[in-house]
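We close this part of the discussion by returning to an individual protein. Part of our work consisted of pairing the sequence of a single chain with a tokenised description of its backbone. No coordinates are needed to read the tokens, only the vocabulary itself. The amino acid sequence and the backbone structure tokens for this protein are reproduced below:
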Amino acid sequence: MADDALETAADEAEQTKKYTDENPREAGSELDHGDVMKRHDRAWNYDRDNIDAAYADLAFLAGEQWDEDIRQQRISDSRPVLTFNRMGQFVRQVTGDMRQMRPSIKVVPVDDGADDEIAEIRSGLIRYIELRSDAQRIYTAAADSQVAAGIGHWEVFSEYADDSTFEQELGIRLLDDQISVLWDPDAKHPTRKDAMYCFCPVDLTRDAYEASYPDHAVSDMGTNSLATEWFADDRVRIARYWYKVKIKRRLMTMPNGGYEDLTGADPGHIAKLTAEGGKLVERDGHKVRWVMLNGAEFISEPKDWPGRFIPVVPLIGEEIRVGSKIHRHGIIRFAADPQRAYNYARSTQTEFVGLQPKAPFLGTEENFKDYEDEWNLSNVKNWPFLRYKPDPKNGGAPPRREAPPSNASGLTECVMMAEQDMQAVIGIYNASLGAKSNETSGVAIQKRERQGDVGTYVYMDNFALSITHTARVLNDLIPHYYDSSRTVRVLGVDGSERRVPINQPQGLAIGGAAGTLQNDITAGAYDVQMEMGPSYATKREEAREGMTAFVQAFPPAGPLIADLIAKAQDWPNAEAVADRLFHVLPPNLQAEIAQKSGDPSKMPQQQPPDPMMVAQAQAEMAKAEGEKAKAFAATAQGKADVQLADLKIQQQQLLNVKTEFELLDAQMKLGANGPPIDIEQLREWASHVDMSLQMLDQHAASSILGGGGELPEMPAAPEGVGGEPQAMDMPPEAMAPPGAGPSMPLEGLV
């Protein structure tokens, strides 16, 4: 332990020897303040002409449009020094188009480990970060500087969601000094994404600096020759220094075609992926770091930044490269001279008119002799009439006013030419500024406005490029700052907000880790696309007008898109009206829309029956039942008629049998000869026949009344008599009258 302490003390002593009057403190062995300041001076010398000109452009826009020497000379000569600032309207014309535009950011998957659903969540999260940061105001504030001075800046930063949580949020903020940001002179890309370092200066009052950095007193800068531009009596300049450190990145290519960055990963995890078929590749890369400094020392420790981009976004105006030198400007730079000429011509014109004498009255002395007081006040008092004394010397003519000298035509032409030069230099003409021109139709006016937009479209194009780079920086940082299980807010393209759980463990835990993660936004590779166009409200208005015109041209489409037309309206309850109209759509169309949108709430629901339709259906059903009953009755009637005919046949047969019995009975009474007959059985059989006849009569009656049914079962014949009554097969002589001869015995009677 003692040896370690001695070694530490020795190291501290050696480090103290490295401190000099030029550099009293160092930020560890990785950085040397002197080397960093050399980088700063190199970047400053490379870009200082553009920086000085940009500040002059902003001052010119603010109204400082006269050279100081000329202004002081004219003031000392009591000559007018007028400023007719026309620059503001030109700047607002360009930035006004940008304010009307809304960038549509879309994250897209680029490998097998990414999917469309996670890409949509990332897109919505980026939109929410912009909303939370009030990014639209930040973008347009930087655009004001871009259009006027040729450059603007904002940055992406991280912060804790609140004081009581460890969850961090990303945000966007405007830089304090957008002009003096210094970039690596070797960077070539308009977004400076290829830069190796960047300085973002901040000017603080002396009191604010001492309160924020009490351990780094201003007095320490006193002997540092590098710090002369970094502090003054009332201010102290500090800067955030972003820089990239070269490293070796370890990338694992997976069997499914994806890849994973394993730089700094656990060796066990690397071995596991290798066993699964992954292939480890080393590649040159870098990591981003930052540190705070002033002109004399580092005032913070270096810190790592998790992303691969320096999170500072430049917004470039126009750049012209001449050899190795870049000249950057906005619309003010070359419009300043026509504006100065305009101010000079108008000031001289005003001076010329102001110096003209009031038009005098000419007359003879005799004309004014008696009314001199009235004529002396004629230029300040509105007399109803002026009296004069006629003088024969001028023929009695009244006094007359001498015409004043006319305005100089050269000054008027100078004013007009200066105004035209301003418009030609900038590329925006009166028609684009709202002045009335020869165009009368809406289409012609729009085409004229677009011609003005084309002349300044380079600013719009660079504006879109910078916002795209911002989205790419945010997309790169999302896996690092939203890597825990949490619920985030995401925004849709239409501004609708919803809460989405991300990185939620799913399935059984194996070895302390969940099997899968729901909405894992840390996996996969994604890129950013952006479309710059009108705002969502403007697009909705155009869609509303287009759909209305389409329905007028093709009325049958009205019921099918009525919900979309209602949704595009600006009514207070447009969404509610659209929801109600959606349920009027045909069920098959509702089901198709619900399937495509993945919203089960839009599936067609079973609707309660309409009472009128139910009553109508019941009436039709009753009518059908009635017709069915009539048809059944007709069928039953036909069947009954057939059965009745059968009954009549059977009745006739029984009557025939009865007649035969009566004949037999008469024959017995007459003492006819024949075999012996059991009188009791014969009488019982006769009774049986009578009963059968009565049952047939009853069944026939019931069939006529509609009862129907089967024929009644005939009572069984008496034992020994035979089967059911039927016509008896008797020989002719059996039917002879008594005494005609012997009778044949009855079949079945023994």
User: Anything to note?
Assistant: The two ends are 146 Å apart (CA to CA). Residues 1-29, 717-750 have pLDDT under 50 and may be disordered. The longest helix spans residues 611-669. The chain has three domains: 20-331+457-518, 535-602, 635-735.
